[in-house]
Design a protein that fits this description.
The protein is of the alpha/beta class. The chain contains ten helices and 19 strands. The longest helix has 26 residues. The termini are far apart. Bound molecules: flavin-adenine dinucleotide. Flavin-adenine dinucleotide binds next to helix 1, strand 3, strand 16 and helix 7.
């Protein structure tokens, strides 16, 4: 019997997880990725421990021994007023690992499972074709039985798939930089320094480097120096940046994204079904460091749904609604340094509460009753 074919648009963590899962189910997966591997990405590169379980389910649980991420447990949050909150994540540690390493490794895994991963292959259009989808790239036109849209925070396909962000782009921007410095240059494993309209996250990654990822609202830039006046209001951040010195390599910027829900599936004229995974469905507030784990989970769920939009929507909401709800709630407080400054001393007197709030953002049900 002919194998079912699935087109995966986008080869980030969601698309590659979808391809691995589809190939393991016996489907013929074709990933079209607009750029090529390896590549640096704008991301905090804090991997939530939940990703380990998700990667194990894809037969890729050995990523940690292959890529040697840094274990991250102790968290420090600071604000411009000098408020500080330190806590330790309950349970297994999170992992500091570059997207460059993770994605190149996942792409290799997808190919080893039998998926076809096409690089420099932007999908320009997806349309219905005899119960399946027909897609077009600059060099090719082909058919698949169904499609998974895993094209991230923004894509040229947004309008065609009627994603709300096509009409209302988000107001956030971000910058990524690395410093040649050991983990001991930080006071905690992960530091989040609040600034007006955003925050600066610092954590070590493999290779004895510390990654900086700043989220802010306003004019996008890839020039860290332009953000220093904004950062200068947080004294702990000023001290930390002085200690880290100049970034090594280029800094990268990312513009105009938001955290609103998009769509879980799109059924086009003629019945072409595209299931949306990862940031294409919804970007979880970045301070949670949960986006990659959610991308891998939704990629797998989309592959397992095999083009059934209702089954996918049910699985998506059952597994992720609590995670998104808590993250969105805390995001509002987190992005207002004044609110955080008021709450920090209160939270500091209740040492069990911050790890619990963190766990809520992971949708851990046993803690919902806490
Ligand atoms: C500032 C910031 C900090 C973050 N920090 C963290 C963190 O610390 N930890 C964490 O887990 N998450 C973090 N996230 C979230 C995380 O980066 C995302 O959730 C994750 O990248 C989602 O993966 P994805 O595969 O859905 O999308 P992406 O990784 O963006 O992949 C989408 C891919 O689709 C490709 N593409 C787009 N359009 C097309 C097309 N038409 N044809 C072909 N290919 C196309 C793109 O080239 C891209 O490779 C952060 C996000 C932001 C914005």
């Amino acid at each position: 019997m002919r194998a079912r074919s699935v087109l995966v648009v986008g080869g980030g963590p969601a698309g590659l997880a979808a391809a691995i899962a589809a190939a393991r189910l016996g489907d013929r997966a074709i990933v079209c990725e607009a750029s090529s591997y390896p590549r640096d990405r704008v991301c905090g590169e804090f991997l939530s421990p939940e990703i380990v379980d998700d990667l194990e389910r894809l037969g890729a649980g050995d990523f940690a021994s292959a890529l040697r991420p840094v274990a991250l447990s102790r968290v420090l949050v600071t604000s411009p007023s000098g408020a500080r909150l330190a806590f330790t994540i309950d349970g297994p540690p999170a992992l500091g690992l570059t997207r460059r390493a993770l994605e190149a490794w996942l792409a290799e895994r997808a190919r080893a499972e039998g998926a076809e991963v096409r690089e420099r292959s932007p999908v320009r259009a997806v349309a219905s074709d005899a119960g399946g989808v027909r897609f077009r790239t600059p060099t090719d036109e082909a058919r698949a039985d169904s499609a998974i849209g895993a094209f991230g925070k923004r894509s040229s396909l947004d309008a065609a798939l009627e994603l709300p962000r096509a009409a209302r782009p988000g107001r956030f921007a971000a910058v990524k930089a690395y410093f040649d410095a050991p983990p001991s240059a930080l006071e905690a494993d992960v530091e989040l320094h609040l600034v007006r309209g955003g925050y600066v996250g610092l954590n070590p990654v493999e290779g004895n480097r510390i990654g900086l990822c700043a989220l802010f609202d306003g004019e996008p830039t890839s020039d860290l120096a332009k953000l220093l006046p904004r950062f200068s209001r947080n004294p702990t951040l000023v001290e930390r940046l002085a200690r880290l010195g100049a970034p090594c390599g280029a800094t990268r910027g990312l513009a105009r994204f938001g955290f609103q829900a998009q769509r879980v599936a799109h059924v086009g004229a003629g019945g072409a079904v595209t299931l949306l995974a990862g940031d294409a469905a919804r970007l979880v507030p970045s301070f949670t460091g949960d986006g990659n784990a959610i991308a891998v989970r939704t990629g797998r769920l989309a592959a397992e749904a095999r083009g059934d939009a209702n089954a996918y929507a049910r699985a998506f909401h059952a597994e992720l609604s609590a995670r998104f709800r808590w993250a969105a709630l805390l995001h509002r407080a987190f992005l207002h340094p004044l609110v955080f400054s008021a709450l920090a001393p209160w939270l500091a007197r209740r040492p069990a509460l911050a790890p619990r709030l963190y766990a809520f953002t992971r949708g851990r049900r046993e803690l919902d009753a806490a």
